[in-house]
Amino acid sequence: MKNVTDSFVSLGHWPSAGSFGFNTDILATNLINLSVVLGVLIFFGKGVLSDLLDNRKNRILNTIKNSEELREGAIEQLEKARARLRKVEIEADEFRVNGYSEIEREKLNLIDSTYKTLEQLENYKNETINFEQQKASNQVRQRVFQQALQGALGTLNSCLSNELHLRTISANIGILAAMKQITD
User: Fold this and answer.
1) Which residues form a coiled coil (predicted)?
2) What does the alpha-carbon distance between residue 53 and residue 37 come to, in Å, rounded to a whole number?
């Protein structure tokens, strides 16, 4: 180390206007020391350095290989996912088409059943009207008949004797009984 500092110190003592020269002290110069250190490093460190570089190279190659395998797996999964997506899209389209046709069918069925229900309600209404008309007509007939009968009885009572009156009542009761059996 003293040689190194001596060489720097000797540079400080050179005359500024003087001649130019080389330091001939071999041990004092760093060039030889550096070449020896580099030579020793290259000789002994070459194996270690090549091992380090080989290990690094192998790790990089393994990383590339693993990345390629992962990429191939990802591509394979992507293709499977795309195939599933296409299948699901096709099924969705089928469901959509079937759903629309099913909706149309249900709509037509609902319209048809509504028309049928309306027709049934119209028929029930007409039957109810006819029934009520017949009922009213029967009630009117019965009242007319009762009034006619009361009028006839009143006329008969005023014109008939007791014996004739009893025979007429018996005949009318027989007629009414026969009519009642016919209507029942």
Assistant:
1) 64-98
2) 21
